[in-house]
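User: Quick sanity check before I run a bigger batch. Here is a single chain. Can you write out its predicted 3D structure?
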Amino acid sequence: MKSVLTLANLLTLFRIVLVPVFIYLLLQPEPWIRRLSLVVFTIASLTDFLDGYIARKYNQESDLGRFLDPLADKILVIGALLVFLALSEQVQIWMVLCISGRDILITLLRLLARKRGIALKTSMFGKIKTFFQMFSIVVVMLSFMIVSYQERDRINHAYLNEKENYGLGNWKVASQYLGNFWENPFSNTLFSLASFIPYYLMLFTTILTIISGLRYLWSNYGLLLPSFSSPRKTNNE
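Assistant: Done. Predicted structure follows.
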């Protein structure tokens, strides 16, 4: 029991518990409550660094921790993306499906790898993807906080109206907002930034995620082969 209920594993579980708290706070209309959601998300993100550090420093690494740690990260990210999808027209469902699908795929591959006695490790590209993913989530959250509910509704309606009336995709709508910002960057600056930055960040994050997922599948395709039996380590998440 002691080998399971380590401080490192408890921190990982705490990160999972914080996800519904973060979601609830971000959905509230009061600005000060929405700011608390950023605090909760930051705390949850910090536990990701702390649990790994503590596990290594105090020799608390375990199979459960190696499984729970990436799972907690995925729950946190997917939870945030689902809220973004509900709150912002700039975040599209195909982005959420690509990011969530990649994370679910890797979770399944990890389960298969554990069953076959294989340790899958993250690569530098995977770490860059994760860092940018977290960075993008924080910036998108900030974009919700620097504008009022009414201003965010204006942005959402603008994206909806452009698509419905003129058939424009989010790329063209965001490009128009970006062009307007460059023409007059000091006119309602915060509103202007919130009108296009979330879209571009989520688009780039999605592209990184797709590339990371394809690299992961390419490097570990042997796991999907029935004849694959010899344990090996990879370093390509």
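The chain has nine helices and no strands.

User: Great, the batch can go ahead then.
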